[in-house]
Amino acid sequence: MRLKTKIVLLAGFSSVVSVLLMLGMVRKEAAPVIREVHDELFGLAKANVQQIAVDARALCEIAHDTLAARLDQGVAAASKVLADGQPLVGTNASSERTWRGQAFSAGNTADGRSAFAAEVHALTGLDAEVYWLTTANGHSAWVAGSGAPLPGADAEGREPAFMARIRAGETHRDVQSAKGIIRLSDYVPVRSADQTVAGVLRVSLPPEPMTALRAILMGITVGKTGYVWIIDGQGDERGTYVLSKDGAKDGTSLWNETSGSGHYFVRSIISKAAKLKGAAVDFELYDWRNEGETEAREKISAFTYFGPWDWIIGAGTYSDDYFDARRRVERLMARLLKVLGVSGLCVFLLAAGVAMVMGRAMARPIERMAGVAEVMAGGKLAL
User: Fold this and answer.
1) Where does a domain end: 145, 180, 206?
2) Domain residue limits at 172
3) How confident is the model at residue 95 (pLDDT cuts 50, 70, 90)?
4) Same structural domain for residues 95 and 188?
5) Which of 201, 213, 249, 359 is an S-S bond match for 188, by CB 3.0 to 4.6 Å?
6) What is the pLDDT of residues 141-187, one digit of tens each?
7) What is the crossing angle of helices 324-377 and 3-84, to 10°?
8) 293 and 220 housed in the same domain
9) In terms of domains, do 198 and 121 share one?
10) d(CA 52, CA 243)
11) What is the pTM of this model?
C-alpha cells in the first residue's frame, strides 16, 4: 500500500472515530436529559395543580364563613318570627298547623309564599319553609304546607339521614346542588307543646352568592386546558359532580368511571380524600375525555377535602399541556444528532481531502528518498 494512501486512511479513520465518539456521548446523555426534563415538568405540573386546589378550597372557606354568619342570623330571625306567630303544631292535621291564624301553605301572598315565609324573607332576604310530620295512608312523611317533601327524603318517604340530628335537637347545615344551582340551608327542629319534634324549619340562602362562587371557580384555567372540579365526598351522592368543565356534567355521578386500564379513579380519589385533614392535598393520575373530545388524555389532578360542604375540590390538567416542552427537547436532541452526523460526514470529507493533498506533498519527498535508498542499496548510485 502506498504511503499516500496510508496517510489518507489514517486521517479518515481518526476523523470517523472522533465523530462516532461525539455522537455516542450525545446519544448517551440525551436519555438522562429527557428524563430530567420530564421529572421537572411533572413536578411543575403537580405544584401548579396543588396550589390551585388549595386556593380553590380557600375561596370556598371564605365563602362558607361569610355565608354561615348570614345563615345563622337568618335562622335566629326565622325562629323568632315563628315563635312570635304562636304556631299551632300540636296535632297531626296539617290544616290545623297555623301561624298567626293562617295556614303554612304557600300562596298566601302575592309572590306565592306563605305568610310566614313572606315575613321571614322581608326581614332577612332568605327563604324559609316549615315541614311537618304528616301521616297519610299509613305512611309518615315530612311535608311542607305547599306539599313539597323534605329535601333528602327518598321516593318512599323515608327520612333523610340528617333527621337523626334534628330529633336530637341539633341544627343541620346542608349544601344542595341541582342543575348548576347550589344552595346552603339550615334545618332546625320545631317542637310541639310536649317538646317532641313536630316540624323542621328550613332556612335557605338565595342561590346568587353560591352562583357567584361557582362562576369564579369555573373561570379558573389550569395549565392550558385544565380546570377546577368538585364532587360530593360522602353519602348517597358521593362521586357526583357539583362542578364540572363548563357545567356540562353537573349532577352526573362519576362513581363507576374507570380509566383505560379499568382503574376506578373516582373511587380512589374519594378514598384518599377521606383521609385528608385540613388543607392537605393528594394526587391522582388517570385518563379522561371531556365532552366533545374524541380521545382520552392522561390527566393529573390534585384534590383536597372541604368538610363543611362535603366537597372534594380538585384542580386537574393534562400531561400534554406541560410535556410539550419535553417533546421539544426530544426534537432538539434528534436534530442535534442529525447535525452532528452531517457535520461528521463533512469533517470526514474535509479530512480526507486535506489528507490527500498533504499526503501527496509529504509522500513525494519520502518516496524519492526511498527510491534513492533502493538505488544506493543496489550499488548503482553514480557519483
Assistant:
1) 206
2) 85-206
3) very low
4) yes
5) 201
6) 777 766 777 887 766 667 788 888 888 888 899 888 877 788 899 99
7) 170
8) yes
9) yes
10) 15
11) 0.73
Q: Look at the chain and report how many structural domains it folds into.
A: 3
The reply to whether 228 and 199 lie within a common domain is no
Residues 286 and 303 both lie in one domain = yes
Q: What integer is the mean pLDDT of 261-267? A: 89
pLDDT value at position 42?
75
**Tens-place pLDDT, residues 326-382:** 566 666 666 666 666 666 666 666 666 655 555 556 556 666 666 656 666 665 555
Q: Which pLDDT band holds residue 242 (cuts at 50, 70, 90)?
A: very high
Which of 322, 347, 363 is where one domain is finished? 322
Distance CA 168, CA 189 (A): 9
